[in-house]
Amino acid sequence: MINIFEVNETNKMIEQEKLDVRTITLGISLLDCCDSDLDTLKQNIYDKITGLAKNLVSTGREIELEYGIPIVNKRISVTPVALAGGRACASPEDFVEVAETLDRAARDTGVNFIGGYSAIVSKGMTPTDEALIRSIPAALAATERVCSSVNVGSTKTGINMDAVKLMGEIVRKTAEATKDTNSLGCAKLVILCNAPDDNPFMAGAFHGVSEADAVINVGVSGPGVIKHALEGVRGENFEVLCETVKRTAFKVTRAGQLVAQEASERLGIPFGIVDLSLAPTPAVGDSVAGILEEMGLESVGAPGTTAALALLNDQVKKGGIMASSFVGGLSGAFIPVSEDQGMIDAVVRGALTIEKLEAMTCVCSVGLDMIAIPGDTPASTIAGIIADEAAIGMINNKTTAVRLIPVIGKDVGDTVEFGGLLGHAPVQAVNRFGCAEFINRGGRIPAPVHSFKN
Amino acid sequence: MSKAIVTVVGKDTVGIIAKVCTYLAENQVNVEDISQTIVQDYFNMMMIIDTSRSEKPYAEMVTDLDELGDAIGVRIRCQREDIFTRMHRI
After folding, report:
1. How many structural domains are present in chain B?
2. Interface touch B84/A8, C-beta < 8 Å
3. Cβ contact (<8 Å) for A66 and B7?
4. What is the CATH number of the domain that holds B51?
5. How close, in Å, is residue B41 to chain A by CA atoms?
6. What pTM does this model have?
């Protein structure tokens, strides 16, 4: 029988260490919404989303109340719109109308974000993929809750450098299109390599074509819980350190698994995966940087940071895997800058540069995330950073992503406020040497030799 | 599934258990186990309850107990047992 100490431990995690379920994300296939008429397509999409998701938010709230654990976000991911909208959308303007429909469906179901305004172009782009990509700046400027992602490479296919070049330009155009709100559109646009089909986290969530008609994916979190556990083992060796992370990750993930199963049962929608992620928020004590510093770094960014992050990422997975029947998504530690007060502090004190963050992305679960850069950064430089990240993902068989915000009118030394979970960020310096000739070559980077396993 | 855990945390005062138990009894909720400690004058109690015979909707009970806690000046939480067993038992 459960005892008072165990009950108190759990409640302390929730109340003081900010344990929460970060998101319940309902994945919805839009493939059966396809139509050659744009208005019919939009109606089909709206009806399907609002039909399946009508109880998502209220069910999430019920579970929160009954179990006493906060579920911070309720969200929706859909089939990449480049696929679902291909027959009806002849131009970028048509795609923008679909984005507006998604936004309306998100608002009417009460979710805070809807992901899947996406194209998967890791090897090549169809004309509709390209039309969707070209519509992204206008779509993100015209909508509030729509998130967009583009997968430009994979270990199996190599990197589509034409898409990388285009995305450099699209990031800049999105920044321009949303310059009145600190280029906020770029916070809802992520460029991925090896994007998973079942990621519940924004902005990269979409409902892959390998998925069922509808599915519930849950993202857990809890950096504060891990940090607190590590406070109890200061000075101990790495074996103790790793074991402590693993045990704590197990407990955190069990809570996520329970919520996922309950949500699935109550909504009558199959359970997909639990994403074992440490997702920070700008709140004090909810920081991944705080964990790394608790391990013994004077500041995140100091030598040792990559090793600390690598062990954290691995132990979170090891603890979490046993706690859940299906794991997937991104699973690991997120290192967004603007959403993590410890990362922000490290940038401000000069300890953390983009180059160090790039090294960290080799071992974390995603990539260069929520980093504000000068508004005059050239498109080719942004494309170069995307190519670097995609190469890290491709070679290391991992998901990598880039979510950079070139803040129009801002430069190094300025700070940008995005609000809410997106936080605030100091504008970081980018290497000023160019790579335009490299990016302008066009074509593809072939898949690496270790991808040929067949 | 009908088991839940009620926790009461706050400044110790006369009648905390009586008031919580009265509410539970009025709603046909059986108390299966109680444990409590007092740490530095702070009252800390846990009850395992069975709500299977209660007609009160669970969500309402959570809210009622929360309000009762406010009235007494303590924090009362009522959570389904699963959240604890899943986390602490393999």
Report:
1. 1
2. no
3. no
4. 3.30.70.260
5. 17
6. 0.94
Which residue range forms the structural domain that includes residue B55?
3-88
Assess contact for A25 and A217: CB atoms under 8 A.
yes
* Residue A325 DSSP class: S
Using an 8 Å Cβ cutoff, are A95 and A129 in contact? no
Question: CB of B46 within 8 Å of any CB in chain A?
Answer: yes
A58 at B interface, C-beta within 8 A: no
Residue of chain B whose Cα is closest to the Cα of A252 = B87
Q: Is A25 exposed, middle or buried (0-12, 13-18, 19+ CB in 10 A)?
A: buried
Write A69-72 long-range contacts (CB < 8 A, 24+).
A69/A14, A69/A19, A69/A20, A69/A21, A69/A255, A69/A259, A69/B83, A70/A14, A70/A20, A70/A21, A71/A20, A71/A21, A71/A23, A71/A24, A71/A259, A72/A20, A72/A21, A72/A22, A72/A23, A72/A221, A72/A421
Of A4, A10, A62, the CB nearest to B87: A10
Q: Which of A219, A222, A221, A218 is nearest to A263 (CA)?
A: A218
Please report the ipTM that was assigned to this predicted complex: 0.91
Closest to B67 in 3D by CA, of B11, B20, B31, B14: B20
Contact A412, A429 (CB under 8 A): yes
Q: Which of residues 237-296 of A touch B (CB under 8 A)?
A: 251, 254-255, 257-258
- The CA distance from A87 to A89, in Å, is 6
Residues of A in contact with B35 (CB under 8 A): 3-4
State how beta strands A71-78 and A21-28 pair. parallel
Give residue-wise pLDDT tens across range A275-318: 988 999 888 889 999 999 999 999 999 999 999 999 999 999 99
pLDDT in tens, A18-66: 899 999 999 999 999 999 999 999 999 999 999 999 999 999 999 999 9
Beta strands A71-78 and A400-407 are unpaired
* Domains of chain A, CATH where assigned: 19-193 (3.20.70.20), 228-439 (3.20.70.20)
Q: Which of A8, A62, A67 sits opposite B83 (nearest CB)?
A: A67
